[in-house]
């Protein structure tokens, strides 16, 4: 069952205790990634968190959608749908609503960014030019996942956009700054991964013992700031052997 909340938001049942919100520009059905849609996702997330307490178990925002998981002991589909319809009519398209600006230190080098030379060769640029282009942008946090703290940031300059690796690496180090297509991200923990590594960030992207647990949230803006090796170590960074 699909319900249109307004020109930019559509609601569907996604399970026994879940609803899915789909966001679009001007009522279009196709899901695309734009700053205005990301702003609406951010607005909706904030509104729901402010107006629901025990009823909502979890909110999982993405590029152009949000999964709302609710407590069946507190509310049912029908009543939650009606409350969301009323609440989210407050959401309006504000194309350039600005989130917080978060600066993340980045140690760019051939020892910390094993794919820098390959990206430079592909783009017909120098390694220095690749680094300059990467830190020149302000990136919007469009979504968080596949792991806690893994923020999908967009968009990188098209000149340094790179396809994912054909064969993912089995071990990508914590803090690896990487590019896939026109997205960039920081790996919050050591894990397998197929993104192209260009540097390392010494800042924890997820820590369950701190509040907040992540330095960024959906809607924030991120800017990478180059640091040298000494500063990287001073901020707690570690160099680990990378799989080629």
TrEMBL record:
GO terms for molecular function: ATP binding; hydrolase activity. NCBIfam families: 5-oxoprolinase subunit PxpB (TIGR00370). It comes from Colwellia psychrerythraea. Residues 9-216 form the Carboxyltransferase domain. Keywords: ATP-binding, Hydrolase, Nucleotide-binding. This is Allophanate hydrolase. The lineage of its organism: Bacteria, Pseudomonadati, Pseudomonadota, Gammaproteobacteria, Alteromonadales. SUPFAM superfamilies: Cyclophilin-like (SSF50891), PH0987 N-terminal domain-like (SSF160467). Pfam families: CT_C_D. The keyword Hydrolase applies.
